[in-house]
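Good day; I would like, with your permission, to put a structural problem before you. I would ask you to consider whether the tokens describe a fold that such a sequence might reasonably adopt. The full record is reproduced below for your convenience:
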Amino acid sequence: MEVVWMPHALASLDIAFNQAYDLFGERVAKKVVEDIFSHNKLLASFPYIGRQKPYLSHLPALYRSLVVHKHYKLVYRVDDIRQTVYIVALWDTRRNPQQMDNDVTHK
């Protein structure tokens, strides 16, 4: 399967990079991003590896998440017809999970 990062997820990745850069420097920030992107290959091969998100069950698509760093998880959906995994959010696990709906639907 192909893995596609949606614009909102990429914006969250940029925020994560900048936060890591400010706190720990460029080397660590780049490593965080590399570690997160390294999961693209895993999702392409095993798109159903992530857990279903109960907080998002009211939405029309089925969303899953995969922990990719101690503070981040990818929220994604699988489109079997298009053979594509859409990463819709990079979720900071320190946030309230009930707010995840806003990140996924971009409210």
